[in-house]
What we know:
Layout: E1 21-23, H1 28-38, E2 42-47, E3 50-56, H2 57-68
Parallel strand pairs: 1-2
Antiparallel strand pairs: 2-3
Protein name: Chloride channel protein
Amino acid sequence: MSKLCDFVELDEEAIEPTPCQLVRGSSLSKVHNLFLLLGLQNAYVTDRGRLIGVVSVNELREVVSDIYAGKAALKYMDPPSFHGA
């Protein structure tokens, strides 16, 4: 309980001032463009408003590099299904 009263120096912490949200099923091209255009370090992946993951710029670079090197194939995901639709 005493930790709740501790002072935290936020200037030293890496906090994303404007976090970016990606929807599950977003294309690699769209994600790559968002990271490039907005200079993102991280983006939060959601499915119907619930957080399901985080993508970092380093992970994105690795995946793109692997695809161009032929180490990985593009995997197409179906868009999320909506229950009751």
